Automatic annotation (TrEMBL):
Protein name in the entry: Heme exporter protein B
Keyword Amino-acid biosynthesis: no
GO biological process, one term: cytochrome c biosynthetic process
Residue intervals passing through the bilayer: 41-59, 65-90, 111-135, 147-172, 179-200, 212-235
GO CC annotation terms, alphabetical: plasma membrane
Subcellular location per the Swiss-Prot or TrEMBL entry: Cell inner membrane
Amino acid sequence: MNKPAQDPLAVAEMAERRSGNAFMATLRRDLKLAIRHRGELANPLIFFLLVITMVPLGVSPSPKTLAVLAPGMLWVVALLATLLSLDGLFRSDFDDGTLEQLLLSPQSSYINVLAKVIVHWLTTGLPLTLVAPLLGVMMSLPEAGYIPLMLSLLLGTGSLSLIGAIGAALTVSLRKGGLLLSLIVMPLYVPVLIFGASGVRAAIEGFAYNTQLAVLGSFLALAIIAAPLAIAGALKMSVNN
């Protein structure tokens, strides 16, 4: 007997539902793993706090000097703190074979990879964004810079996680790939750093900072579209080598 033809809309709906289930399953799994490893979770925040605390000691305790340095320094240290956590993004999954199974799954690699990067941002970029105003007080950041700082970090750290995940995927099979990861990722981080810090500085000087935020939003949108594809391809190369 001939099987009845399936409704294309129904098939598409089922595929979309399976993709959504895979996305949520990966998201929940990685969040649980991140919570279990609280020590690794706190490393970027501790690094952020320690470096910003030492800046007044090593440069100058003068509020005027710190206020000038604050936008760039806060952004640079947030960038380095994000970079610090990237090496372990896919490492544990690669070591125990989970990553290979994830790539062989019938579900879209784009969806699974995007879920993993979102967890990285939730456990690294978002906490850094929330802590930044407190450290801004320590750096004598002018009042006009707090909202732009948080908004720019909110957009910028998402791009940093997505871009950094490409480097993490390329170096996941290397036992000591931290230095190579930094060399790959740092040039790609420069535009995000420039527009993030300049947006905060413009707000402090009384100028509009909408343009910088719009550019950061464009970087993030482009990264969400393109980065997971590059990450999935890089992971397949690393796993097959």
